[in-house]
Write a structure and sequence with these properties.
single chain, 69 residues, mainly alpha, 2 helices
Length: 69
């Protein structure tokens, strides 16, 4: 998909191609939702995570507390 927004007729065509035919009154809502998701993903793709480990590497453990400073 290009950077151009998805139009309602294109949304209907892609849904039908995927085996999910849409009622005529759903084309606009599906196109708007797809465009919103595309804009959010575009922002996420711009983030630089650098050396951030994947979430699976995180191990949550309760911190041991004592009175020593």
């Amino acid at each position: 998909m290009s950077s151009a927004e998805l139009t309602p007729p294109e949304a209907a065509r892609w849904a039908a191609r995927a085996g999910l035919p849409l009622a005529d009154d759903r084309h606009l809502a599906v196109a708007a939702t797809a465009n919103h998701i595309h804009s959010v993903v575009a922002v996420l793709r711009e983030l630089t995570f650098g050396d951030t480990p994947p979430a699976g590497a995180f191990r949550a453990q309760r911190e041991k507390r004592d009175a020593a400073v």
